[in-house]
Amino acid sequence: MGSNQLKTQLATMRDALFKQGFLDEQFIQLEELQDDANPNFVEEVVTLFFRDSVRLINSVEQALEKNPPEFDKLDKYMHQFKGSSSSIGAAKVKSETSLFREYCKQGNAEG
Amino acid sequence: MESIISSRNNGFPAGLRVLVVDDDQVWLKVLERMLIKCSYEVTTCCLAREALEVLRKKKDGFDIVISDVNMPDMDGFKLLELVGLEMNLPVIMMSVDGETSRVMKGVQHGACDYLLKPVRMKELQNIWQHVFRKKINKPKNGDGHESNDDMEKARNGLDELEDWYLINGGDLNLSKKRKDNENHEYDNQDNSDPSVAKKARVVWSVELHKKFLDALNQIGFDSKVGPKKILDLMNVPWLTRENVASHLQKYRLYLSRLQKQNEPKTSFCSTRQSEITSKDSPKSFDLHDSMMKQQNQTASCSFRYSSKEVLIQDMAPEILEDNSMFSFSPSTKCTKVLNSDISYPLKSTCGSRSGITNSFISPAIDGNFTPFQSQKQSRGEETSMLQFIRQPKEDQDMQRHGYLPLPSQQSHVQADSSLYASSVNHGIYIRESDKLHSSTIQSVCVEYKSSCVNDEHLTASHTDLFSIEASEDTSSPKDFVDQTTTNVSSNMEDFSLDEHLEVRQFHPIQDYTCTENFRLDDIEVFDFPGMDLVTELPSHSDYSYDLLDYPVKDQGLFIA
Prior knowledge:
The complex is a heterodimer.
Chain A: H1 2-19, H2 25-33, H3 41-65, H4 71-88, H5 91-106
Helix pairs in contact in A: 3-4, 4-5
Chain B: H1 2-9, E1 17-21, H2 25-37, E2 41-45, H3 48-57, E3 64-68, H4 76-86, E4 91-95, H5 100-108, E5 113-116, H6 121-125, H7 128-137, H8 148-167, H9 173-182, H10 206-219, H11 227-234, H12 241-261, H13 271-280, H14 291-314, H15 316-328, H16 330-342, H17 348-364, H18 369-390, H19 394-403, H20 405-424, H21 428-450, H22 455-474, H23 477-486, H24 490-506, H25 515-525, H26 531-536, H27 540-547, H28 550-559
Parallel strand pairs in B: 1-2, 1-3, 3-4, 4-5
Helix pairs in contact in B: 3-4, 7-8, 10-11, 11-12, 12-13, 13-14, 14-19, 14-25, 15-27, 16-18, 16-23, 16-27, 17-18, 17-19, 17-20, 17-27, 18-20, 18-24, 20-21, 20-25, 21-24, 22-24
């Protein structure tokens, strides 16, 4: 019973993520890739993504601390971030990174 | 390549060997999974250098490469270029951003496709088409026929070819011209990278091509059709005469390629390429070892001679059999082998041709056959050299370029084989001569290995060549034959050996030495599955002519 409840909760959360635009259809693709041969595929990928993200965000912070911020570096990091976020269908992250890159190109430190 | 063919039988494109290069671990994982789902064989690399290493180590280990554009250690474009040059594999680029300029750059560097991340299963499922396209553009495989779709494919292949030229920095007059002429079509598009000397070109859509064909049919294709006339008939305002001209040329090449595909012999070289090369190859002979050029080399000779040779070619298979039987039977070997050898001089043009194809074959053959084969070969070369000397025509020149390089390549083989022969020894003459052979040839080998072109050598060989020419001239072909039938003088052998030497040394004079390797690579890399093909190889017909005795020789003379 408890597990059922958890499952519904999970499904709702997942739906919410889609509705709020955090995830896009790429995530569904990932889910489709998961099969008996790779039962934890989505989890593995998402874990990888988060691990990468932590590393990237650290780098981004470092680049931001410099004065003036190193825009090409930031841009590079953001590009990577965008790449990996697109792979798991993290739509919101992806659009944010796009925005970030725009600011980088303009040399806008505020963005 | 072979594996493609085989895997195709059990359900191509399943089993397509894909190398994925991406610095993004997440993507790497996802792509791997996706490709496996497509039932492809996947290898992943997270660094471009690593990928290159893998590719170099396992040449022919992959059918297609998918590479990210942005990588820390090497620009994806750079990788793309290297892979295109070294392995001639289709490369798909992928990136998150689909800026037109980026995509354009990718295509300019020779990417066969540019995928935008997130890459979907559907797109990956379809990547086999690039492998297939590459394959049908290899003249070997006669899959492509008439339909517009195939035409399209062929055209794409051509474009790739030209891209390739451009990437190599080779001046392809053709594409240069076109580029200039088509500039105005795409003026408003920004060509981000001026260093890559290529601009967008007229897209020959199916409809446009249809118009073109209609116009062509109206005029009649057999005669020399002028692009101007076609253009008028096509009635497309924005099209220029040059556009039509280049398309016409492509179309011609395409047709001739189709034609050639039906003949076993010419499967080596597509005429499409040969036409291009016959114009441009001299310029683009820099050292990149890739298929195209090999083919060009071959093409340049076969193209010119094709008309004469078709007949001979057709006879090939049976003849080869004869031939091989021949050299296998030890009792007759001694005399007969020589016999056949000596009749070479009679054959002039065919002879030289035979030299070429012959050398194609020998690497593929193993076992007992090899020594004799290569011996003959060497003689074939010699004779053709002689012929060349006798008729120093333009054509012959061409031919020479095409085939000269081979001997040096073969020198290894020959040296080995002659040694082998001498150890097995089938007769005194041969033995002696072979010893000579091996020693001289080996020395030549060494020279070649060092690969420095010694000026003294050159001059020496020059003079030698001429002296031989003289002696050759004095003795008529008939004399040779007589000698053969009565007894084979080791003199004769020595004589040819000398020639051999000189011929070899002579090569470096031309700048085309580089081709040697290519030719052989060609064989190994591209789908000549051993003996089967060998039997198809026409060149042997020449031999058989010889073996079949004298009337044929006459014919040979006649052709000369």
